[in-house]
Specification:
5-stranded antiparallel sheet; globular; 6-stranded antiparallel sheet; alpha+beta
């Protein structure tokens, strides 16, 4: 596969901005390098799921395989490893950022903003998971020491930063809230309408505008049939997993249990 075809394929299948096209082109260069030298090659950036999930489908197009890692189970943002063998170690560290926030509750945005205020671009670190004002962050190892020595505050609260073993029991998991909804069918417009508690016309508008992703890919067909375990992202509302159908209401609507990411 040539470079232009590769870039076009990932851009067309992914929810990316123009700024990320250069990262996709650089990814192709790393694939070619891995084929030439026969050694493991890693990206220096964490890629969003629309990129790495598309890339995994292209394994047969190259003489190497693609591997992903983001520290956490079900990680969204992941480092890519390129090799014709299994990869045991990725250049990723797990950081624990503990803030001494006595009089306020810190949010995901507070930790994200504090890291980026140090001049670190978003692609250099992966998922952030919060638990009791502690942020657990997957970061590329080349910025690990910089964060340890330079991140001293989150918002206005002093903080400490330490490296944890990526396999430690303290490592948190993504948490969900179980919600039951009623929907006339498993059509995407019906599911979006029920999840967001909006009209079908409004849900159609969201879908047409590309605000709805199914398994991280934009889905613009309102009659797309959703399956169990599909992951639905609705911009402005959150991320949901279609978990199971638990019955039918007296009016004939489906009773569906979904999991909402906290």
């Amino acid at each position: 596969m040539d470079k232009n075809t590769f870039v076009e394929r990932l851009v067309n299948c992914s929810d990316v901005k123009n700024l990320e096209i250069s990262l996709i082109a650089n990814l192709y260069n790393k694939i070619i390098l891995a084929e030439k030298i026969g050694k493991e090659v890693f990206t220096n950036e964490f890629y969003p799921p629309s990129i790495w999930s598309t890339l995994l489908k292209l394994n047969s197009s190259f003489n190497v395989s693609f591997h992903t890692y983001g520290v956490f189970d079900e990680a969204e943002r992941r480092i890519l490893g390129i090799s014709d063998k299994n990869i045991e170690h990725f250049p990723v560290k797990l950081l624990k950022i503990k803030a001494n926030a006595k009089f306020c509750s810190l949010s995901h945005r507070d930790f994200l903003g504090s890291i980026m205020s140090l001049g670190i671009i978003r692609e250099k670190f992966g998922d952030l998971i919060l638990k009791n004002d502690i942020c657990y962050a997957a970061v590329h190892e080349d910025i690990c020491d910089y964060l340890i020595y330079n991140l001293s505050k989150v918002k206005n609260s002093p903080c400490s930063v330490e490296v944890l073993d990526s396999q430690c029991e303290e490592k948190p998991k993504h948490e969900y809230e179980c919600i039951n909804i009623l929907s006339t069918s498993l059509r995407l417009d019906c599911i979006v309408s029920s999840i967001c508690n909006i009209s079908r016309n409004k849900s159609d508008e969201f879908i047409r505008q590309g605000k709805v992703l199914v398994d991280y890919f934009p889905e613009t067909k309102r009659d797309f049939m959703v399956n169990l375990n599909n992951l639905i992202v609705i911009r402005g509302y959150g991320k949901f997993i279609i978990y199971k159908i638990i019955g039918v209401s007296g009016s004939g609507r489906l009773k569906i249990q979904i999991k909402k990411y906290n």
